[in-house]
Amino acid sequence: MRIGLASDHRGYRAKQMLKDSLYRYEVIDYGTDTEDSVDFPIYAKKLGTALQKGEIDLAIAICGTGIGMSITLNKMKGVYCAKVSNISEATLCKSHNDANAIALSEDMDDDLMLEVVNKFIETPFSNVSKYIRRNDMIKELEND
Question: pTM surpassing 0.90?
Answer without folding.
Answer: yes
